[in-house]
């Protein structure tokens, strides 16, 4: 298949061949038990703070927040008016979408996927999660699927711009140790993917795009039993 722009950037920058890739992020890492944290060498559990220039931008943008909130309210009101004028077919489509979203949210809760990992700190996923921000203090990772396994790339330190130009490989997970999995097998259009380790433990990553290039790559792979 033709590489996407993200894949081309990653392959050129990192010197690897990727079959799929997307920028991803993880949820907040919960506080591990004291003995687990100490055994891991008291690793960093949060990304670095925004660089000073980004913080200045945030401060300068603060006066515009009320205006943005007003625009959001106006947009919501406009959407409500449009809904009241919808045809019957459009109303049915909206109800179907809302029902799908309810089933998706129920499936996420049922599989405990509203957590960042399976909860076992001694499992492979838990141990990998403990080292997440030791690899890089940036809040995102470019997750790449290669024939050899999963490659994670990021700037060594958090940046506000230019993440592609500064990224380098921060971790490799061989295919013998873990695979990328869409927990819903394509049933729902979500940003959720799992890095599932061979011991059954898992780590949730969220892609920037719904049903991303990574999702489509995972869904093209043969099932383990086939």
What sequence of helices (H) and strands (E) makes up the elements?
HEHHHHHHEEHEEEEH
The best one-word shape is globular
Largest sheet: 7 strands, antiparallel
Average pLDDT, rounded to a whole number, is 87
Strand content: 15-25%
- The low-confidence parts are none
Instruction: Report how far apart the termini are.
Output: 23 Å
- The beta-strand count equals 7
Radius of gyration: 20 Å
Number of helices: 9
Q: How do the strands line up in the largest sheet? A: 4-3-2-1-7-6-5
Portion in helices: 40-55%
In terms of structural class, how would the helical and strand content be classed? Answer: alpha+beta
How does this structure look, described?
The two termini are 23 Å apart. A hairpin with a 3-residue loop joins β2 (141-145) and β3. With 226 residues, this protein is α+β, with helices and mostly antiparallel strands. The model has no long low-confidence stretch (mean pLDDT 87). The chain is globular. The longest helix has 23 residues, at 88-110. The protein has helices at 5-14, 34-39, 52-61, 65-84, 88-110, 124-130, 132-135, 163-166, 213-220, and strands at 20-25, 141-145, 149-154, 168-174, 178-181, 192-197, 202-207.
Key features?
alpha+beta; seven-stranded antiparallel beta sheet; 226 residues; single chain
